[in-house]
Inverse folding.
């Protein structure tokens, strides 16, 4: 009441852009293709939409100011835990739920911190509840109070490194102004169908302090 302060926000500009692709299925080809080929092509368009949209969001992870881990080093459980504690222990903690997004190779590295991977190190049923669940199901769906998601679409650089993240769901924002959909059109001059798939979305980092980048080696596992 005594020291009045001004409440203000910082503008973030998000400019949605169209993304799309086109396939041409000629009548001649369709006459020779298996039944349902057009439906298969439509499904591939939808998969392509996902493989464009998801990496765009995953690419935001490296932009967070706080980075834990190092290039060339396997991500370990302690670093994931440190990321979680940084979210919780901040002066203004990121609102829950908190999520963990990692590449499958990151997860394999962290796996070694939950279950000893040396031969015979864990007798059947002797590793504890968490270890047993990891051995049965490959990994737990929650780790250190965070929902765990994996994505093989996380970019791997030329040195076999990549970024995962521990973050509040308020850390980034995705604005979808038009869900991708198919608009088939017959093209007489091509004697075929044009499958036009177009959508529109924009995305941005929303609050930098609500995310912690997790950097680690993503070389193909061999052991």
């Amino acid at each position: 009441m005594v020291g009045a302060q001004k409440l203000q926000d910082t503008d973030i500009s998000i400019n949605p852009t169209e993304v799309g692709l086109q396939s041409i299925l000629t009548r001649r080809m369709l006459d020779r293709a298996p039944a349902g080929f057009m439906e298969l092509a439509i499904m591939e368009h939808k998969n392509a939409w996902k493989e464009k949209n998801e990496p765009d969001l995953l690419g935001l992870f490296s932009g967070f100011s706080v980075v834990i881990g190092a290039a060339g080093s396997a991500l370990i459980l302690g670093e994931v835990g440190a990321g979680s504690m940084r979210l919780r222990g901040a002066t203004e903690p990121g609102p829950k739920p908190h999520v963990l997004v990692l590449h499958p190779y990151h997860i394999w590295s962290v796996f070694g911190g939950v279950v000893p991977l040396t031969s015979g190190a864990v007798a059947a049923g002797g590793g504890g509840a968490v270890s047993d669940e990891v051995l049965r199901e490959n990994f737990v769906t929650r780790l250190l109070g965070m929902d765990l998601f994996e994505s093989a679409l996380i970019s791997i650089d030329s040195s076999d490194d990549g970024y995962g993240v521990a973050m509040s769901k308020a850390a980034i924002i995705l604005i979808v102004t038009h869900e991708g959909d198919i608009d088939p059109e017959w093209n007489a001059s091509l004697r075929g169908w044009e499958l036009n798939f177009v959508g529109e979305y924009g995305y941005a980092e929303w609050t930098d302090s609500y995310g912690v980048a997790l950097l680690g080696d993503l070389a193909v596992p061999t052991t």
Notes: Residues 123 and 132 are 10 Å apart (CA to CA). Strands lie at 17-26, 67-69, 98-102, 142-143, 146-150, 161-168, 172-187, 192-205, 211-217. The chain is about 25% helix and 30% strand. Residues 117-127 have pLDDT under 50 and may be disordered.
